[in-house]
Please model this.
Amino acid sequence: MATVTADPAAPARGSLTPLPYRVVRRRRENHDNWTIELEPVGEAIEPIGPGQFDMLYAFGVGEVPISTSGDPANDGRLVHTIRAVGAVTRALCAAAPGDAIGVRGPFGNRWPLAEAAGRD
Model:
C-alpha cells in the first residue's frame, strides 16, 4: 500500500522557521517606543490569543519575544509595541513600511477570559 507524503522538493517548515510578514504601518509612541503593524506575506501564523506572544525576527540581527498590543482579529494583522533597547529591538523599531520581519508563534498559554469575566 502506497502512502501519500509531502512533496520532497518542498522546503519543510517547522515551528522554528519564521514566516515572513511585511510592515504595513509604523508609529512612534515616544522617544524609544514604536508600534508596528504587520501583515503576512503568504502563510500566516495561527491566531494569537490573550496572554500569548510571538517571536519577532529581524533578518540578519536576531529575534526577541514580543507580546501583541493589538486586536488579533483585526484582518489577520499583528500589532506589536516595541521599546528600542538592544540590537534586535532597535532593528525592529527601524523597520519601515514594506520591510520584512520574520514571525514565529504564538507561544505561551492563553488566558481564559470567559472564566475571568467579572472577577479580580
Summary: Confidence is low (pLDDT under 50) at residues 1-6.
